[in-house]
Each structure stands twice: as structure tokens, then as C-alpha cells.
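G.,

No rush on this.
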Amino acid sequence: MSARTKLSSAAPDAYKTTLALSEQAERAALEAGIDPLTVELVRIRASQLNGCGFCLRMHV
């Protein structure tokens, strides 16, 4: 099994941009009255659907 790539090191600009988008989406969801737990559950499910082990591990 190969080691996971650390995205923040491999593609720092893309990682920062993705993180900024995630933070903005969270702010918008919270301002819309969506419960923080629901926001996190959506992130977990999106990680599952995208097959992203890095993100999934980060959210659980």
C-alpha cells in the first residue's frame, strides 16, 4: 500500500483555495440556519461520494 499524499504539501495553492471555499460554504450554511452537525455530515458524505480518503479521514 502506498503512503497518502499530503495535499497541503503537494499542491499548496489548490489546497488553500479548496480550504477557503469550504470555509465560505460553512459560513453560508450557518448563516442560513443549517445546524453545524448537519454541515459536518454533508462534508462526510461528500467525501464518501468523491472517494476522497484524505477528506473523509479529516472529517471523522
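When you get to it, here's the other one too:
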Amino acid sequence: PMTRDELKELACLGFSADLVMQSFCHTAAYPKPVDIKTHQQLPDFFSTRGGVALRPGDGIIHSWLNRMLLPDTVGTGGDSHTRFPLGISFPAGSGLVAFAAALGVMPLDMPESVLVKFTGDLQPGVTLRDIVNAIPYVAIQQGKLTVAKQNKQNVFNGRIMEMTGLPDLKVEQAFELTDATAERSCGGSTIKLSVETISEYFRSNVALLKNMVARGYQDAKTIMRRVAKMEQWLANPVLMSADADAEYADMIEINLNEIQEPIVAAPNDPDNVKLMSECTGDPIHEVFIGSCMTNIGHYRAAAKVLEGAGTVKVRLWICPPTRMDEKQLRQEGIYDIFAASGARTEMPGCSLCMGNQARVEDGVTVFSTSTRNFNNRMGKDAQVYLGSAELAAVCALLGRIPTVEEYMEIVQAKIDPFAGELYRYLNFDQIAGFEDEGRVVAVEDMPKIEDILGIPAGALS
């Protein structure tokens, strides 16, 4: 609503930015009367100006917006976790976001960059979320980051984090790394990915966007224009890359071979990172598996840990990032496992991560896959650990943070043998009939790409 009010002040009747999106992920699950009114009015305000309006229950804006990105483009958003895994984004306040949407440009003093270079290979039992936490862990070891607020040192503050060395990550995985640069106080972030990775993602996203139009999402022309640009890129896939002699404000090298166990962010600061072995035995009362830091593979892996164990020893919260994740997990029987464990399942969205809807009990200790663990964010006086979904599930089983040996034994028995099946991502182009699911717009009534691009009919065939 704040961005809407700013757009009214700018007398914006149509967006100049190629893509503008709004969602209700902060308010959909437990709406107040004012939220319901906003849910009814805001979509038309955005779509009549050429924006894309999501619906309550669709899920987290970042998980959707990532599906609409183009490589080597610049964006912004009114949420600090607007951290594109493709191109680059600079989160901003509602006024600047409205300015960028209305005019298609934004003023920016270009920050310096810090290079984070990954070498080696991911070790057994170590997840990408552990690598997220390894960035501040190594920076602390090198004296480039301190946890204490007084006279705090932070090499990343206000700078762009450029990450290299993991080109074959899936885009969903890459977002775990770029998303978490918000907690490093970065101005922005980039990650170098392969053409093959992005091509796979685009083929999936083209199917998703066409399904959105089939379901009646607006603005249909804006969505189909993005489809056209993705297909143009797929026909000529080219990516920008850093200059060989690029200069950086600093450089941190992280050898993955040296990370032999999970790394967690301990209460209550995302920079307060510790090896899991330093926290072994700490009691856990509630576990949250959700937020924009998760993808469908995390829920499959967590379910595999919980399968057959009965009711867990903690209060367990499950909240997938999008309705598509939820549907697929239900079809695969994953929700049955969560139900058997006694989990409370939430509508796709931000849930406990935002802290403005449902909350944990006062004074409890929580293990969470969410983005940040600031004081009182998830619950009054809550002490919150941040880490992987896999470790979260183990904590739910045991009611405490495990020993390294306990964790590795569970991972080796329950996750590793099934990794190929668990860590499959949502490739919508490979789901039979997906483009027609929920169709309310006839194929012949969908906007034609040729018309949108202003080229002769049949020129794309």
C-alpha cells in the first residue's frame, strides 16, 4: 500500500519499468480487515498500469519474481530480500521503488564490490545453507567481520558481493546465497551461473508464465512480453562476465573442502555464526521450515528425515514458499509425512519469518530456516538458530541440536541414498499438461507474442 500511495503522488498511470510485481505474502495467512480490503483493491491498481498482480495464497514474492527475471538486468524491490539470482537488484524504500516503477530508472551511487570465491567441493552432510553461513564464518576468521555492534567491522557493508566458483548451481540454489546477502548488509549481490543452468530455468519459467496467463493473471501482455524475452534469450544465450582485471574492495576465498560440518547462526544475530559442534545439546522447542530461503528439495529432505519417526519432540511449523511447491508436495505424499509428525502447516507465504502473522511461544528456543533471527522477530524473547532444513528436521526429531556424529548418521541413512530424487526442482515444462492447469482463458484469447513485439504474424515460427 505504501508504494501504491507513492505512485499516486507521482501521478503514475502506467509503468515505464518492463516488469512491476506486487504480492500479499506478508498478510495473506491471517488478514486483518484492512488487509482484506487491500487484497481486493491493490491488484487492479497494479494491473491497470501494466503491473503483474499475484493473489493471496500464491506465496512469497521473491520465489515468484525470480521466475520472471532476465540475466544481466537491474531491478529493485521494497523488501530487503529482493536479491536477484540473475542480474542484480538494489532493494529500496517505497518511494524509490515507486519512482523506479513509474519512470523505469532509479538514481544509484554504484558501490564497490567484494569478491567471494568458492573453491573445492561440498563435503558430505554439508548443505548450501551451511555455505551461506560459511561466508560470515570465514570473514570473522579473517578479521573482516565482527559480531559485536559496538565498533562493528563489516567488509560487506554497503558493497556488492560478487560470488564465483559455483557455476552449476540451480537458480533456486543460487538464490539461497544472494538472498542471504541482505544479512551481510550488502548493497547488492551477483552470482556467476552457467548458460545451461539458466536455460533450464527459463524453459521452466516460460511454462509457468504461460500458465499464469491461462489462469487469468494480469497484466497478461506484460507477462507474455517477459515470455518473449526469455525465448529470445534462449535462442541466443549470452551472459555478461566480470573483466579479467576487475578490481575489488576485498576478496574472500572459501575452500569448501575445509567445511566438514554444518554451520549455524546462533541467537540472536545472523552474523553470530558457529560450528554446529559448538552448539551441540542446546534444547530446541520449536522448528520452522519455511521462508524464501527454501525450495522444494528442502521439504522432501526434511520429510525423509521425519518419515516413520512418529510425532516429533517439538512444535514443528511447515510453510512452503509457493502454491506450486505445496501442490507438488501434497501429490508426492510429503504432507502426509508432515501430518504424521504432528506438524502445523501454513499457507504458502512468509509466515513466522516475517513475524507479523503467527508467532512462536514467548521465550522459546527455535531452529529456523528463515532469513534472520533478530530479537523478538519470531516471538517475544525467542532465541533463534538459523540453519538448513535438513538440520532443522533432525532438531525436530531430537528436541535439541545434535552431535556431529548423530547428524551425519541420520543424513547418511535417510538423505544421501535418495539425494537424486529429493533434490529435484520444479521444472514446469516437464510436467504434463501444466500450461493448461486451471485455465480460464482460451488459448485463442491469449495475447500473441507477435502482437506484443510488433512483428509480422508467423515470424517467430
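The domain at 113-193+239-257 is CATH 3.40.1060.10 (Aconitase; Domain 2). The mean pLDDT is 96.

Enjoy the weekend,
O.
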